[in-house]
Amino acid sequence: MEELRRMILEKGKGIGADIVKLDMFLNHRIDTALLFRMGEAWADEFRDEKPDMVLTVEASGIAMAIAAAHALGDIPVVFAKKSNTAVLGSETVQAGVYSFTHKTQNTIRIERRYLPEGARVLIIDDFLADGQAARGLLSLCEQQKAVVIGVGIAVEKGFQPGGKELRDAGIRVKSLAIVDRIEDGKIVLRPDDE
Ligand code: 5GP
């Protein structure tokens, strides 16, 4: 997606060899016009699969999931929670996720009734790195016998294995931009194949 690619090059920063910082417009301060155009890009990609809900994980994925769900005709968004609150019902489905940015092991959970058997699910997230978050969400869907129609990602880090592993497993992945590498703090994008 050209507009997102331009923003990454203009406003993004590379930290060390493998962290992409897009806080200025994606996951701290949010450029809402860009956000909703990203939603349209995912909707154009996955509309033919007729998803009936969008699934993500808190917190950064939620805004993007809403944009996609709105563009798909205001279907519901369900987000997996990272902490176990008293409000959460006892009937939950859970999966373990190792966080790349925080270097911690988390459990993500959803009330089972919000991810019903047979639901056609589009998974959305901000970054795809090692694929842990996506695999955790896939596991929730598998446990609930929901149907994953695809995975929409804002920024895939092409130098980490998550994207390749998901595609090799036969999952349809649409990343709106792919980072090839970080060079002296500068983000280098993979040429666009659109
Ligand atoms: P994965 O589970 O694919 O290894 O990592 C994906 C999750 O880790 C995303 O939900 C995202 O929040 C976080 N993440 C991974 N790499 C980066 C990065 O370079 N920058 C930021 N801001 N978040 C990242």
Structural write-up:
The longest helix is centred in the N-terminal third of the chain and has 15 residues, at 32-46. The radius of gyration is 16 Å and the shape is globular. By secondary structure, it is α/β, with parallel strands linked by helices. It contains 6 helices and 10 strands, in the order H-E-E-H-H-E-H-E-E-E-E-H-E-H-E-E. It starts with a helix and ends in a 5-residue tail after the last strand. Helix 3 (32-46) packs across helix 4 (60-71). The strands form 3 sheets. A 6-stranded mixed β-sheet has the order 4-3-7-8-9-10, with helices on both faces. Strands 1-2 form a two-stranded antiparallel ribbon. Strands 5-6 form a two-stranded antiparallel ribbon. The protein has a single domain, classed as Rossmann fold. It binds guanosine-5'-monophosphate.
In the CATH hierarchy, the architecture is 3-Layer(aba) Sandwich
Oligomer: single chain
The top-level CATH class is: Alpha Beta
Number-wise, the strands total 10
CATH topology: Rossmann fold
Distance between the termini: 8 Å
Which strands sit side by side, in order, in the main sheet?
Answer: 4-3-7-8-9-10
**Range of strand content:** 25-35%
- Count of the domains: 1
Strand and helix map with partners:
Layout (H helix, E strand, L loop, with lengths): L1 H10 L1 E3 L3 E3 L1 H5 L4 H15 L6 E5 L2 H12 L5 E4 L11 E8 L4 E8 L8 E9 L3 H13 L2 E11 L4 H7 L4 E11 L2 E4 L5
Parallel strand pairs: 3-4, 3-7, 7-8, 8-9
Antiparallel strand pairs: 1-2, 5-6, 9-10
Helix pairs in contact: 3-4
The chain binds guanosine-5'-monophosphate.
